[in-house]
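Researcher: I'd like a structural prediction for the single chain below. Treat it as a standalone chain; there are no partners to consider.
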Amino acid sequence: MAKATRILAGSLVMMVLGSLNGTAEAQNLTLTVRLRNDARAPELHVAAAKKQVTRIYADAGIDIVWVASGARITVALLSREQADLMHQMKDVMGYAPASGTDGGRFAYVLNHRVDEVSAGYRSAKTIVLGAALAHEMGHLLLPSKPHSSSGLMREKWGQSDFRDANRGELLFTPEQARVMREGLEIGR
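Model: Treating it as a single chain, here is the predicted structure.
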């Protein structure tokens, strides 16, 4: 009888733990993203950068689904010529115009600036491109003034940030991840 009681008690514990794990693990939200490669960057670089963005957002509890149309947000990778026509600030890798406290739906990453930063910090282009894409997408998902003193949403990055990015550690803060998830929940 004691053996049967231990087995039953063990089974109950496993059921309770399984139930707790099922409720404790929040399901990731989904975000559809279109990436327009207007700069005609090598597809190998773009694919690696998209993989990095997907991993960064998964860490924040958001699953990225890359689509060709019908996306919630679009990021355009611009050539130098396109960037010169559209943008005046020369020291940024991207921008995400928005109105007021609402995020927008379009962001831009400047391919030539990604190349310059990559060369200047001796960091792989795919790492810099992935971080820039994730950062600009963050502007679309976070309320106004989303820059932080650390992490992916820092206004200016340095060598240590690119070392973190290379290790997969340049991420959103837990608070930023929470705010983005809440915004996606509301926007469903």
